[in-house]
Amino acid sequence: MLHLTKVAVGCATAEALRARISGRADSGVVRITTRYRPTRHTEMIGGSLFWIIKHRLVGRQEILGFAESEDRRCLIELDSHLIAVQPHPRRAHQGWRYLTPSDAPKDMGGGSGLADLPPQLLEELSALALV
């Protein structure tokens, strides 16, 4: 299974990204548009799209599938649930990039208590490289 990374353009916080996703959700699915279908798209179904905000991976959505829009662009179909991940440094880039499972950050939680922190505090700790 393979993952993607993508910059959350226009989102300064994970909460802004969460609000954007909920506003675009249709029956539990969010569709984002990209110019070309990833070459390795069959390996990504069941994987995740990891979002980058302020040079950190902050959350992920499960990749449900791929489709084509009316204007022949690629639609990436994602689960509408955003899962917080342990902040992980990642340079910003244009478009998307592949991410191997071994390089993917772990989901928030797992008994660490980080998921219980207020989002603003978690972002501040992450910016200081304390989490």
Record keyword descriptors for this entry.
131 residues; DUF1489 family protein; 3 helices; 7 strands; UCP032025; 36% strand
| Biggest sheet layout | 7 strands, mixed
Tell me the helix content: 10-25%
Domain count: the total is: 1
What is the N-to-C succession of helices and strands?
EHEHEEEEEH
| Beta content | 35-45%
Task: Annotate the secondary structure layout.
Elements: E1 3-7, H1 14-24, E2 29-34, H2 41-44, E3 48-53, E4 56-68, E5 74-79, E6 83-89, E7 96-99, H3 119-127
Molecular structure report:
This protein is an alpha+beta fold. The protein has one domain (3-127). The protein has helices at residues 14-24, 41-44, 119-127; strands at 3-7, 29-34, 48-53, 56-68, 74-79, 83-89, 96-99. The two termini are 27 Å apart. This is DUF1489 family protein. Pfam families: DUF1489. InterPro entries: UCP032025.
Question: What would a concise description of this structure say?
Answer:
This protein starts with a strand and ends with a helix. It is an alpha+beta fold and 131 residues long.
